[in-house]
Amino acid sequence: MTTKLIHKTIIFVLLLAFMIPHINDKELALADTSDLKVTGTILHLREGPGLSYPIITTLEEGDSLTSIGREGDWIQVKIGDYEGWVASWLTASINEQQTIDKTVISQVERLNIRTEPDIASPVLGQLSTGNQATLITENGEWAKINWNGLIGWVSSDYVTINEKTEKTTTKPVVEVSTTTESKGTTFTILVDTLNVRKKADLTSKILGTVSKGQSYKVLAQEHNWVQIQYSNKKAGWVYSFYGTFSDAVKTTSKTTTSSSSSTLESVTIIYNGTNLRTDATTTAEVVQRVDAGETFPIVGAKDDFYEIQLGDKTAFVATWVVTTSHNNAATKTTNKTKSEPRKNGTLNGLTIVVDPGHGGNDHGTTGQRGTDEKDITLKTASLLASKLSAAGANVVMTRESDEYVALRKRVSIAHQHDADAFISIHYDATDNSSISGFTSYYLNNNQKGLAEAIHNGLASKINLKDRGTQQGNYLVLRENRQKAVLIELGFLSNANEERVITTAKFREQASLGIYQGILDYFDANE
Questions:
Q1: Total number of domains constituting the chain
Q2: Which of 237, 233, 227 is nearest to 203 (CA)?
Q3: Tens digits of per-residue pLDDT, 121-167?
Q4: Residue 179 covered by a domain
């Protein structure tokens, strides 16, 4: 009996010894299946491939995911005991091979950086003429790039791809993180006034304001926010959609008696094989040929040429083959951005003004439970703006913080940007607390079709009483030359309805309904 027991014990130990490595190998194999990571600050895991599906759980930046399927811009993933769908533009591949020996130089203004190599995919940001990024990989007519930490795809038709040289100012490839440093980059404000905030959040404390045309040193970037040095000792965050980036070039001018380095206006070449000539004419002798990405200080201008510093002498380069460091928008170029035909299901090429009602000392209506209309209109408008931008629209918000904006100013913003649509977001109130429901207002026949499409989109997404589309003599409709709609998303004066319409779930569904209505309208009216 003792011998048999010893034999059984030995056999058990041997079996256990063989099993443990296999168990560990299996666990390791499971651990190694993760192929994605979360790049957004938060990411909702949903029951289906779309923003309208219920949220299963919330993921955090850096979480590892295993992809198991895909549908459009949505990826089916596993994480722990959960299985669901996530937005692809808020994830990145863990095992992605990155090459760092080539740069991509934009030849045009407003070159879209997209989540996928397809003109129907959401837009992450834009490059200006002469902006340089690091090439990650190429896929047919598309190039995947890293631009100041923003990773996405650009069309190869509008860029020059070069080997890296010491003369380029392209930033090295970095891991996508919450905050990306941006050394040597400036940010120029494109709107009249823009709030500077303590943190990269619309609810964060306002430190001050900056004005149109002002340029600031970029300290860091975090998703759609930029940290700028807006005074000698102060730094703050601004929304990146309201400005443009450029690279500051530091060099020594050989045309002055001072030997100290100073920041000069310079040109960046945007085409390979660009001729530098002895005079400001295309018939002058070529002294040197240079490639895209090379920069030279400007020492003068003559006709349609810049005179640039070239070693210990000067040369001339045509204005239409370069971009300047201080004014990209003013640079002449013969290669205009090709207008992308708008595909059904996208908003490419459209400008939409989103108007969060009230703000500042204008609280709007106040609900029976104390809700200020101005607060939830901004939250709803921000969600809508995000969806419209993801579909390719150029979105302009009449306010992006708790500030007062006059009604006529809101209308003028639509006129200034020649908007394709003006959407004003409001919540309703009346003396009769039993009245409920949502209403979409228009004034003239030019606005009616858009109002009806948006109203139908809302009706498909929210569970409130449908009060229909109606004519309303509101100033933002009456004075607006653009297609304009004013939406009342339920009654704050109705206590029961206030409970519903002040939830995050309602705002998500309402913004999705408005987005769907806008999309349907432009799909039907190409």
A1: 5
A2: 237
A3: 767 777 777 788 888 888 778 888 887 667 788 888 778 887 654 43
A4: no
